[in-house]
């Protein structure tokens, strides 16, 4: 009887001990994998769907027509940068790249274009990295909604139908060294977003505002170039924001020299008329 019990315990230990080892060491799968598009998978979407958390997808140069949904912490990057790796929305009603409920994803080195939503859209996602991307000819270049503690660096978000970068209900994000120029409405727009660092960006040549803060508090707005917009930096119902060393120059200052030249010519013409009339009166 004792032998039977001992054998049964040994069998159970054979199954229990490996499970305990996995729990203690955290080794539940092999090391993170790196896959390539189009070598490993023909499309970016397929590669993303088949990866596991922690994996890296490297996309080779080319033009891709896709909408990519990221729902796990992976690194997605191009091999040769945004000018060589262009992703156009196959369905304009969706973002080109959408990161949904993810902590710790990265998107690096793509051009994202052709979306009526956004080139890159973070929804309820935290601690993600967007870097070296070019988001052009979308509704919004880059949009964050309810997304905190993300890093947006060295992206270009220009020539979009509304804004270059739009944040709503998004806090504690780092927005540094980006370009948000020549958008149809605004360059950078913070809506109900607090404690963000907006530093050393360019928000110029936008048709309306360079940088807008709407019901957004305790943000740091430092060292930005906000040149030749209709309005430079606009705050509405926003308090305790730190504003230092920003360069602002609205379109008014481009028109002003022309106005002054016109006034100078007009004054010269009036003076000449007056002097001519005086001279004639003296010689009558």
What does this structure look like?
- This protein is an alpha/beta fold and 284 residues long.
- The protein folds into 2 domains: 1-30; 33-282, Pectate Lyase C-like (3 Solenoid).
- 22% of the residues lie in helices and 35% in strands.
- It has helices spanning 2-25, 44-50, 252-282, and strands at residues 34-37, 56-59, 62-65, 68-70, 75-78, 85-88, 97-100, 106-108, 111-113, 118-123, 129-131, 134-136, 140-145, 151-153, 156-158, 163-168, 174-176, 186-191, 197-199, 209-214, 220-222, 225-227, 231-236, 242-244, 247-249.
- It has a 10-stranded parallel β-sheet with strand order 1-2-5-8-11-14-17-19-21-24, covered by helices on one side. Strands 4-7-10-13-16-18-20-23 form an 8-stranded parallel β-sheet. Strands 3-6-9-12-15 form a 5-stranded parallel β-sheet, with no helix packed on it.
- The relative contact order is 0.07.
- Mean pLDDT is 87; it is low at 1-27.
Structural class: alpha/beta
- Beta content comes to 25-35%
Rounded to an integer in angstroms, the radius of gyration calculated over CA atoms is: 29 Å
Say which CATH homologous superfamily of the largest domain is assigned: Single-stranded right-handed beta-helix, Pectin lyase-like
Number of domains: 2
CATH topological fold name of the largest domain: Pectate Lyase C-like
Order of helices and strands: HEHEEEEEEEEEEEEEEEEEEEEEEEEH
Number of strands: 25
Estimate the helix proportion, in percent: 10-25%
Which CATH-level-2 architecture of the largest domain? 3 Solenoid
| N-to-C CA distance | 145 Å
| Cα shape | elongated
Major beta sheet, specifics? Answer: 10 strands, parallel
